[in-house]
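Thanks for the sequence, V.! I ran Major facilitator superfamily (MFS) profile domain-containing protein right away. Repeating your input here for the record:
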Amino acid sequence: MNHVGGLEAWRWLFIIEGIPSVACAAAAYFLFPDFPETAKWLSVGERELAVERIRGVASLGHARIIWKEAKETLTDWRLYLHYLAFISISVPFSSISLFAPTIVSGLGFEGLQAQLFTVPPFAIAFVVTIAVAWVADRYEMRSWAAFTSFMIAGVGYIAQGALPPDSFKARYGLLCVAVPFSFASIPPLFSWLTGNLRNTGASTLAVPLNVSIGSLGQMIGEHEINLPLLPI
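Predicted structure:
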């Protein structure tokens, strides 16, 4: 699509990737209520039922965050264990895009074919992530879903590192296992976090903290790739 409509191909790449996000954001604004009690498309009875179903296990709505809730959230040591878990699973996200092409190029593919071979791990991740999220919600086992995904992904990455450098086919197969379960651990982690926060104020603070602190893992992943190049 280079020079189509007078735009370079890289500009079209950003436009095409951005359109679904913008469309989903617009739809979410109108379709997703902030809280069950504010869902206009539910009847009064349905709203009351929805509120009762999540009472004591999820956040209910109120107007603003108060200092007491903020203090309790910032001083809850258990939340920091959750942030640490999110850091650990964020490490591979930045490094996947760096070492995946190396594995694919080792298979003997170049150019467009090499790019196409980087698609299957992420396509599988789409299916696995939805399946794990459904199981975690259906059987209310979010911690086990996250833990199992952690373990499978971790074993996959360790096995890739332990294999000989020229075992490209085996490493690619393990990549198709490790990448999907890396992504699959995210929905259970998020829902586990929000499900254990008793009010909106805690959610307002804990969720952004989780994402912000967890992003440190991506920084670690980027520098991890360059460790062999650093002076000792």
